[in-house]
Amino acid sequence: MTIGPPKRVSSQQVECENGESGAASSPEDLRHAQAWLHSRLRDLNEDDFEGGLRIFCTSNLVLPEAFQDVWHVISRDSDIREGTPLLSGEDSANLRTILVFCNQNSCNEVKRFCDIITNIDTGTQDAPPMFWVPHSAAPGSQRQDNSDLVRPQLVVDLLYKGVDGIVSGEPAGLRLSMAVRSMIRKSANLSRNLTDMVAETRWRTQYAEYLQHCTHATLWDYVRARLAPEIPPIDHNLEPGEPHELPGYIIGNKLGQGMFGSVYKLTERPGVGNRVQVVKVVSTEAIKEIRELMNINRMIRVMQMLSDEKTRHPNIIRLHQTYHSPTHIIFRLEYGGPENLHRRLLHRQALQPEKQRPLSIDRVVKITSQCVEAVRHLHAVVQVCHRDITTYDKKQREGQAIIPPLKECRHFFH
Fold first, then answer.
1. Is-annotated flag, keyword Disulfide bond (predicted)?
2. How far apart are CA 407 and CA 299, in angstroms?
């Protein structure tokens, strides 16, 4: 029925904010309201409101004869039963407008009005727009204390509850008919504009997704085959998303995470072996440019060179295989050890004595020698420049310092 803000206002809140005592209307008030109702609807019928009409009245007023098929009185709280919708699905499909005649000066009637809104809003899908028609008494019989004026806070609360509009001023006859028809047209135009906006937003979203798909296909199919052949084609047998397994292997706990991907522990399936390796998982979603694709291709080529039997080095991690899932590039690598050199040095100088792990001079010399030898091998033998040598990238295992190849490496030749 309406697209309302997230705030919800209960009927009790509306009732309290009105500041009314909730006393029943006097017989004289009902008599004036009945006479004023017949005067307002004299010479009118359902067609004067463009048909498809349903009227609810929160006071026990006798319905006009011309509206007996669409008039429903909700004058007691028991008239609205919890779980029983006031409108059926067929009613909702055939109706164009709901009008609620309610006396804004009666706390009980405003509460019943709120119950009507809640019942229709929660129990009926695609309900027609609902308009409030304030109805108190004829202008000549109203009290002179401005009680006939609709309070701004009451209007705000009812709009939050789900009312689509208010027919102000208590018009009668043709003025009432024209006011309602005008609000119906405004509501229809607003609904049509919102529908068009939603449709355009949906179309733009779909078109953006289409362009994104085209860009992804161009980058990872055409450009990859032309400029980055070291990256294998997409293997659709691999599940999209973060991988949980590889052919013959089970991916275990996460060991670390960096700017370009995450590293997981990898074990062979039972019956195949018990080797422990790691996988580095890089999301392809973050790779948008050809330059980045070529960097990955260069990295794989360098890692393959360093993994070859002729050019490999015992202190440099080897690349075993590269996989390409619909969403990730996965590198299966040699396991370098559980701890990097940076963390080892922090333990060496830890403030707490129980956490200190000293390094002997011989151990320091051995680690330094292995690091220098690995860098010399990169530069002199493989002719690859390591541009980001840090203690974070040196793994400790069984007394060795193993340097993994980084993502960015630049070739140079003598």
1. no
2. 6
